[in-house]
Amino acid sequence: MLVVKNLTKSFTSHSGTIMALDNVSMTIETGQFASIIGKSGSGKSTLLSMLGALDVPTSGSIEVDDIDIATLSATKQTSYRAHKIGFVFQHYNLIPNLSALENVTLALEFGGMPARLRQERAEQLLRDVGLNDDEQRRRPSRLSGGQQQRVSIARALANRPAIILADEPTGNLDSETGKKIFDLLHSLSRSENTTILAVTHDMDIAGKTDKTFRLKDGKITT
Amino acid sequence: MNVVSRGTRNAFRSPLRTGAIVLMLAISIGLILSMLVARGSVNAKINDVKATAGTAVTISPAGIMGFAGGGNPLTNDQVATITKTAHIASTSATLSDQLGTTDTNLVASLELGSFGRRQQRFNSSAPTSARPAPTPRTTVTGTTNPNSISSSGSTLKLTQGATIDGSSSQLVALVGSSLATKNNLTVGNTFTAYGKTVTVMGIFQTGNTFQDSGLIMPLATVQNITDQAGAVTSVVATVDSSDHVDAVVASLKSALGDKADITSQAAQAAASVASLESIASLALAGVVGATIAGAVIVLLAMVMIVRERRREIGVIKAIGGSNSKVIGQFVTEALTLAIVGAIVGLGLGVVASGPMTNSLIKSQASTAQTPQGGINGSARAFRGGLNQINTNLTEVTSSVTPQIFISAIGITLLIAVIGSAVPAWFIARIRPAEVLRTE
Question: Going by C-beta distance under 8 Å and a sequence separation of 6 or more, which residues neighbour residue B308?
Answer without folding.
Answer: none
